């Protein structure tokens, strides 16, 4: 699988249509494609660190639009497909988790290495509020891709080993810090209201 990913990335990065390839990959990965856009964003950003933030913005927009498409797939046709693979009992348990955690689940999946496409389709299937879904997707995907783009913009090619070897740890760690930050703010606000 690694060879397939490497060959796909190399063919896009060395193409005159690299930016379009990045956008299409970001869109498709949010609903059905297995290769994450980071695999293209990192090498394209490293080729031109001054363009890394623009690439991050484009990747975010394409990924969020792809997430909207995944939501639509789940909303319109997800139940018959999912019912073939998951029992009604398990599906009900997943729905309860969505009811409990709502768009937090989407936002975290959008930022971390958790397969975002699963959450976009499930969000449509369980009819999460579309506007809130898109906002959570924008914040999660934007946070992830801008963290990569900003790192490349600031550190240039020297950041490559860190990003290629530690991207999953970096995004999970950042997501944990983000959640703790929101929890602390919520705790602080509740304490001062009392």
Can you put this structure into words, describing what you see?
The protein is mainly alpha-helical and 194 residues long. The protein has one domain (2-193). 82% of the residues lie in helices and 0% in strands. The chain has helices at 2-13, 18-29, 38-47, 52-83, 88-101, 103-111, 116-125, 130-155, 160-193. Helix 3 (38-47) packs antiparallel against helix 4 (52-83). The longest helix has 34 residues, at 160-193. The relative contact order is 0.13.
What amount of the residues lies in strands? under 5%
Share of residues in helices: over 70%
Rg value = 18 Å
Number of domains: 1
H/E element string?
Answer: HHHHHHHHH
Task: Find the count of extended strands (DSSP E, 2+ residues).
Answer: 0
Helical region count? 9
Shape: globular
Overall mean pLDDT: 80
Span of the ends, CA to CA:
55 Å
Question: What profile does the largest beta sheet have?
Answer: none
* Helix-strand category: mainly alpha
> In terms of per-residue confidence, which ranges show pLDDT below 50 for 5 or more consecutive residues?
none
């Amino acid at each position: 699988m690694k060879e397939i990913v490497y060959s796909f990335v190399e063919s896009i990065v060395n193409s005159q249509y690299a930016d379009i390839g990045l956008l299409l990959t970001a869109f498709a990965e949010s609903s059905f494609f297995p290769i994450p856009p980071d695999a293209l964003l990192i090498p394209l950003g490293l080729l031109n660190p001054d363009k890394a933030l623009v690439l991050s913005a484009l990747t975010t927009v394409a990924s969020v639009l792809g997430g909207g498409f995944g939501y639509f797939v789940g909303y319109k046709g997800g139940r018959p497909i999912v019912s073939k693979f998951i029992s009604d009992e398990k599906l009900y348990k997943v729905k309860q988790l969505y009811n409990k955690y709502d768009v937090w689940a989407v936002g975290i999946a959008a930022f971390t290495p958790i397969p975002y496409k699963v959450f976009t389709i499930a969000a449509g299937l369980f009819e999460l509020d579309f506007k809130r879904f898109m906002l959570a997707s924008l914040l999660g995907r934007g946070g992830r891709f801008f963290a990569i783009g900003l790192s490349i913009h600031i550190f240039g090619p020297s950041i490559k080993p860190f990003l290629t070897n530690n991207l999953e740890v970096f995004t999970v760690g950042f997501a944990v810090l983000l959640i703790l930050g929101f929890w602390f703010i919520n705790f602080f606000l509740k304490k001062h209201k009392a």
